[in-house]
Model the fold of this input.
Amino acid sequence: EVQLVESGGGLVQAGGSLRLSCAASGFMFGSYAVGWFRQAPGKEREGVSCISSSTDSTYSTDSVKGRFTISKDKNMVYLQMNSLKPEDTAVYYCAGFEVLDSDVNCAPMSLWKYDYWGRGTQVTVSS
Done:
């Protein structure tokens, strides 16, 4: 059974930094993709950044490029968030899927591609 557990959310002032962590376990195959999504109140869930385990290729949505960095280390996936803005306030979810075809990338970050989801962690950025 695949499990994804997020940690690291919290309250931070604008311009500050946070690092989110996702502990991934249970993937049966060697290749998988993990992404970070977020959902603000009243808004749709959106893909923020993702990484493919086999190629280490990454993707980040335009609004976070240059500020957020995704990385992985063994079974951990991290989202380093710098220069945070109030509009980054949301519940952040770690999600993943197993990659059975090497041509499949973690992006585009369509919700339907991601089979496994964590419970989310709140990030609040005050102005």
Observations:
- The two ends are 40 Å apart (CA to CA).
